[in-house]
């Protein structure tokens, strides 16, 4: 994948934008975890791959390209990360970069520039997306061999399973016949629950680890937002733990919180009490259980806290 070709096509495609823009490739960006002030766009295209171990080649019409963009002081930056795939035949095959043709780079970047107009300039010209040229992919898409399909790490899945199990235990004594489920949702907005939904915001503590430099740090100011709704005997809770990023790395990505089992248990017990109050109008007068704090030796860094940036970090 020739980066100069991408840059050249992007400069031509973006020349009618108000500001000067440049394009760069960044393999460290993570889908749905853009830094504060950056906008996200995900586009799809087709590409060919070549296994560096056995030489096998294959084509795919499901190649995701993650784009993060920011406009500030008359300068625009777009960071790109095309997702990779690996060979389904080789054992422990490495992830391979896609080879995208010029005729597909062009519509991809045209679609990206339209997203820049919408997200960075609030201009929606109503243009339809440019289609990419698909390949004759003779075998079905293999999610297990696609980086985009496996972007949620095993650690994330294990943590979410733990939250779900504890939540089911905590809600089993709610009104008989009602069912409740918990789901993670990174797009819920504090203080903006959808009509019919209730909100609960609670502070806890967690550890974080920078994916760029490996530095870890604890925090006793980690906000978790819950949105909840009960309709016709079925309850749903959406949860969003807020993230932090490394104060030492430049352009460090926001990292997910690692919360201990003990504090997950406390959080969800307090949540269930709020469900009783907000959804069943039962106030048993129980006090909120405090979380188990960590030994934090440096002051909280609002500039590196997603909740501070959202203006909710002081709530408990």
TrEMBL record:
<dbReference type="InterPro" id="IPR027377">
    <property type="entry name" value="ZAR1/RTP1-5-like_Znf-3CxxC"/>
</dbReference>
<dbReference type="GO" id="GO:0031849">
    <property type="term" value="F:olfactory receptor binding"/>
</dbReference>
<keyword id="KW-0812">Transmembrane</keyword>
<dbReference type="GO" id="GO:0008270">
    <property type="term" value="F:zinc ion binding"/>
</dbReference>
<keyword id="KW-0862">Zinc</keyword>
<keyword id="KW-0479">Metal-binding</keyword>
<dbReference type="Pfam" id="PF13695">
    <property type="entry name" value="Zn_ribbon_3CxxC"/>
</dbReference>
<dbReference type="InterPro" id="IPR026096">
    <property type="entry name" value="R-trans_p"/>
</dbReference>
<keyword id="KW-0863">Zinc-finger</keyword>
<feature type="domain" description="3CxxC-type">
    <location>
        <begin position="44"/>
        <end position="152"/>
    </location>
</feature>
<feature type="compositionally biased region" description="Basic and acidic residues">
    <location>
        <begin position="133"/>
        <end position="145"/>
    </location>
</feature>
<dbReference type="GO" id="GO:0006612">
    <property type="term" value="P:protein targeting to membrane"/>
</dbReference>
<dbReference type="GO" id="GO:0016020">
    <property type="term" value="C:membrane"/>
</dbReference>
<keyword id="KW-1133">Transmembrane helix</keyword>
<dbReference type="GO" id="GO:0051205">
    <property type="term" value="P:protein insertion into membrane"/>
</dbReference>
<feature type="domain" description="3CxxC-type">
    <location>
        <begin position="203"/>
        <end position="311"/>
    </location>
</feature>
<protein>
    <recommendedName>
        <fullName>3CxxC-type domain-containing protein</fullName>
    </recommendedName>
</protein>
<keyword id="KW-0472">Membrane</keyword>
<feature type="region of interest" description="Disordered">
    <location>
        <begin position="132"/>
        <end position="153"/>
    </location>
</feature>
């Amino acid at each position: 994948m020739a980066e100069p070709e991408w840059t050249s096509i992007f400069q031509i495609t973006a020349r009618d934008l108000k500001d000067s823009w440049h394009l760069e490739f960044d393999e460290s960006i993570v889908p749905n975890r853009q830094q504060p002030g950056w906008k996200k766009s995900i586009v799809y295209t087709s590409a060919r791959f070549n296994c560096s171990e056995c030489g096998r080649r294959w084509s795919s019409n499901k190649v995701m390209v993650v784009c993060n963009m920011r406009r500030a002081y008359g300068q625009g930056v777009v960071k790109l990360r095309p997702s990779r795939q690996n060979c389904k035949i080789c054992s422990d095959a490495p992830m391979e970069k896609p080879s995208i043709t010029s005729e597909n780079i062009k519509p991809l970047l045209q679609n990206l520039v339209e997203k820049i107009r919408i997200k960075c300039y609030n201009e929606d010209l109503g243009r339809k997306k440019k289609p990419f040229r698909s390949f004759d992919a003779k075998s079905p898409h293999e999610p297990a061999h696609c980086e985009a399909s496996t972007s949620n790490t095993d650690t994330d899945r294990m943590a979410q399973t733990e939250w779900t199990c504890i939540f089911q235990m905590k809600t089993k004594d709610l009104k008989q016949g009602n069912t409740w489920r918990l789901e993670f949702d990174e797009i819920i907005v504090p203080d903006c629950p959808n009509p019919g939904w209730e909100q609960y915001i609670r502070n806890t503590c967690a550890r974080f680890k920078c994916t760029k430099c490996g530095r870890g740090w604890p925090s006793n100011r980690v906000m978790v937002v819950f949105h909840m709704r009960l309709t016709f005997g079925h309850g749903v809770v959406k949860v969003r733990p807020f993230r932090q990023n490394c104060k030492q790395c430049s352009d460090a990505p926001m990292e997910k919180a690692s919360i201990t089992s003990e504090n997950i248990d406390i959080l969800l017990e307090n949540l269930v009490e709020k469900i009783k109050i907000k959804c069943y109008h039962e106030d048993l007068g129980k006090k909120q259980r405090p979380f188990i704090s960590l030994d934090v030796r440096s002051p909280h860094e609002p500039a590196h806290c997603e909740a501070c940036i959202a203006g909710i970090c002081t709530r408990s």
